Predict the 3D structure of the following.
Amino acid sequence: MTTVFSKIIAGDIPSHKVYEDDLVLAFLDVNPLSEGHTLVIPKEPAATLDKLSEESAAAVGRVLPRIARAVMAATGCTEYNILQNNGFGAHQAVFHVHFHIIPKVGDSGLGVGWKTSEIDHPKAAILAEKISTNME
C-alpha cells in the first residue's frame, strides 16, 4: 500500500530529514505538536508494529535514543514523549509504522489523559501466562 511515508522514502515528497540510514528515516512532522516534533520510520513498509520485521524494529530502536538526544539538544527541551499508534481505533492516521518524538515545552507538546483501572491480580496472572505462551 502506498502511503505518504512511502512517498517520502522514495523521494516523491520532500521532507526535512534529520537522519537516514539503510533501514530508518527520520524527519520533522509537517503538523507538529511542538517545535522539533520528529517522526522516525522504518523504510520497510509495515502498517503496524506487529507486522514489522525484527531487523527493522531493532534498527528503529537503535537510533531512537540518538535522535531523541539530538531533538533535545536542538530545541532545548528536557522532556519529551515517544508515541507510536497501531490501528485506526488507536489513532493511527498513516498506516506505515512510525514513532513520534514530541518535545514537551510549557503547554506545547503532547497532552495525555490516562483512564486507568485497578488490576485484577488473578485475571492478570492468567493473561500474563496466555501472552507468554503466544510469544513467537
Observations:
- The longest helix spans residues 54-75.
- The radius of gyration is 17 Å.
- The chain has a mean pLDDT of 95.
